[in-house]
Design a protein that fits this description.
Shape: globular
Largest sheet: 5 strands, antiparallel
Structural class: alpha+beta
Number of domains: 1
Order of helices and strands: HHEHEEEEHHHH
Helix content: 25-40%
Radius of gyration: 16 Å
Number of helices: 7
Distance between the termini: 11 Å
Oligomer: single chain
Strand order of the largest sheet: 1-5-4-3-2
Strand content: 15-25%
Length: 161
Amino acid sequence: MLEKIKQLTWKLFEPIFPSVRDFWVFLGFIKHSTRQPHLLGKLKPGLTKKSLRTKLNLAGFSDDYLAWIDPDEILNMRKIVKTIYQYHVRLFLDGEIRGHYEYTAESHPFKHLYDKGMTDGRDYLLPLLQDLLLPEVAKLNPKSPPPHSEDSLLKENDANQ
């Protein structure tokens, strides 16, 4: 029953979510002015935004119109997992690809906005994108925080409901 109420509330809030988010940034409640963390690597020479989009579409990703627009971002896609989580991938003008695993805005708007529970998602994203990434860049990535398992995020979600 609680999930149904949350879904209805989200359907009412969804159209204004980007405006509210941007207003909160303006007021200083949230800060967002740089690329989000979790570098996965760089796109191989000769590959394009279309190459990445095709790969992600085939894996079940779609455009994410609710997400931040990071500086120099040219592609922003997500794949929803179990309705409350998502893998999120961004491509930038310089060919850099960043990605992470997090709560969806629909399931937990405030946790999503404040990056609570965000992890690098490398276990899923690197094998998926391996044939598109420069291998030497992937090896040189700075160490991201250790990822949480889906089970631990599910337990955290259940405890917060």
